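STRUCTURE:
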């Protein structure tokens, strides 16, 4: 986390994050217009933010777009802040962006594990429920197949969709239709892509949630930082993440907290 604190220590870098908080998915030129600095200077600051994991870049045609990645901030929150300021930190997860007529969210995290173990954690219903608010997923994990998610405390399905691409242990692409309320049902179908890349003794996991309506209900994507933080905690320590936010939907009592049965 030292890189995160060093990156946040500079006011110019904080202003660049503020600009991405205001409007995600911006080019270098757009970001430069908001600060009194040369293009080269802005590039240096963005490079430091990328190295700290606070900014993720994606190519779209000839443009390089920059996205605010709230996961490292969430990890800082989970370690030190959650019991004091959960409502404030949860607001960081509800970032709003605008990109053409649709919205895209990109989340990146490094986890000390193997691609095979990470793939298992994403696709095994029992493991997934431990970091995903107690929600279980049911599918046969073949391309073109349907999946559904449910929770023991909920009468109906929470999500459903189609497995568009299943390439273990590298890539999973799914459509997603939220069903837990009339408001989210009205948002229709979006898409979630899980990309796993081995890096030394770890993996870089990038989750891209796109094909969202511009201004879509943030309930669709604001849980990702907590889910990914819980996934990292489970695989690296075998423990469940037990911040108030991570338990918000799981219905887990004190007896369920602490070390998992993994």
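SEQUENCE:
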């Amino acid at each position: 986390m030292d890189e995160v604190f060093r990156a946040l220590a500079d006011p110019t870098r904080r202003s660049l994050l503020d600009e991405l908080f205001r409007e995600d998915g911006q080019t270098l030129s757009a970001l430069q217009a908001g600060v009194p600095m040369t293009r080269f200077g802005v590039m240096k600051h963005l490079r430091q933010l990328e190295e700290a994991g606070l900014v993720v870049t994606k190519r779209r045609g000839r443009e390089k777009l920059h996205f605010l990645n709230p996961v490292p901030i969430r990890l800082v929150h989970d370690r030190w802040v959650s019991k004091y300021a959960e409502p404030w930190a949860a607001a960081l997860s509800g970032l709003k962006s605008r990109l053409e007529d649709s919205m895209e969210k990109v989340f990146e995290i490094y986890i000390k594990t193997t691609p095979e173990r990470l793939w298992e954690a994403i696709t095994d219903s029992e493991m997934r429920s431990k970091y995903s608010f107690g929600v279980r997923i049911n599918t046969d994990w073949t391309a073109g197949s349907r999946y559904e998610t449910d929770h023991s405390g909920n009468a109906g399905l929470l999500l459903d969709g189609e497995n568009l691409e299943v390439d273990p242990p590298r890539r999973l692409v799914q459509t997603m239709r939220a069903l837990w309320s009339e408001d989210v049902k009205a948002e229709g179908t979006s898409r979630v892509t899980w990309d796993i890349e081995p890096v030394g003794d770890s993996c870089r996991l990038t989750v891209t949630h796109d094909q969202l309506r511009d201004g879509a209900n943030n309930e669709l994507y604001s849980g990702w930082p907590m889910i990914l933080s819980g996934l990292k905690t489970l695989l690296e320590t075998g423990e469940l993440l037990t911040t108030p936010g991570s338990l918000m939907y799981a219905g887990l009592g004190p007896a369920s907290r602490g070390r998992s049965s993994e």
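REMARK: DSSP finds nine helices and nine strands in the chain.
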